Amino acid sequence: MNRTISKIASAITIVTVFLFALFEIINFTMGSFFVCLILPIGFIMMTAGLHNECEPDRKVAANIGLILATVYSVFIMLVYFSQLTTVKNEQLTDQMAQLLRFDRYGLIFNYDLLGYGMMALSTFFTGLAMRSKSKTDKWLKALMMIHGVFYLSCTFMPITGVFSNMSSGGDGLGGRLALVAWCAYFLPIGILAFVHFSKKDK
Fold first, then answer.
1. pLDDT score for 171
2. Which one, 24, 107, 156, 174, has the greatest CB density within 10 A?
């Protein structure tokens, strides 16, 4: 059952990241928000699968990775559930909109970046906990650990106020392209994880 759940988790991650990229390209905002509710579930399950395989002398790193995956999921699910419910269905005052609307680059946007910063740290520690036994595993480990670099930009860029002047200008094309680029990086992680868990069945 452990392997089956882990494979399903990797498949969920692959599909949701692909759909997220597609929805960003066609500018289908509600679709992007919806798949972002599903991605954390797949990511936690995938991380738990890698954590389960971890050898005893690497458990600390694996535990940190799993805990951070949970922190990421809480932030992200709160962010996108609020967009699909409160923001979508209720009339907001200007002050509330500034805080809650994702496209205003305010509080909720900063929470989103913090969440993805936690995801980046999670992949770093999970990759650190892996012991590579094949070429596929080496690539998976490397991509997960390098992904940890995103923690720096996700956490410190909002602190600098770089997004504070973006609240109503432009169509967000630059931001959407950046997200598509992230998807192009993260999608192979899901694919390699699926291959990894599939090999365990043999």
1. 57
2. 24
Query: For residues 142 and 130, what is the distance between their CA atoms, to the nearest angstrom?
Result: 10
Across the range 8-16, mean pLDDT stands at 97
User: C-alpha angle with apex 82: 76 to 88, nearest 5 degrees?
Assistant: 135
Q: Which helix (H) or strand (E) element contains residue 78?
A: helix 59-82
Global model pTM greater than 0.85: yes
pLDDT digits (tens, 9 = 90+) for 172-185: 677 788 899 999 99
C-alpha angle 166-172-178 in degrees, rounded to nearest 5: 105
Question: What are 33's two structure tokens?
Answer: 């928000």
Measured between alpha carbons, how far is 59 from 157 in angstroms, rounded to an integer?
31
What six digits make up the tokens of 11?
Answer: 């498949």
Residues in contact with 185: Cβ distance below 8 Å, sequence separation at least 6, in sequence order: 143, 147
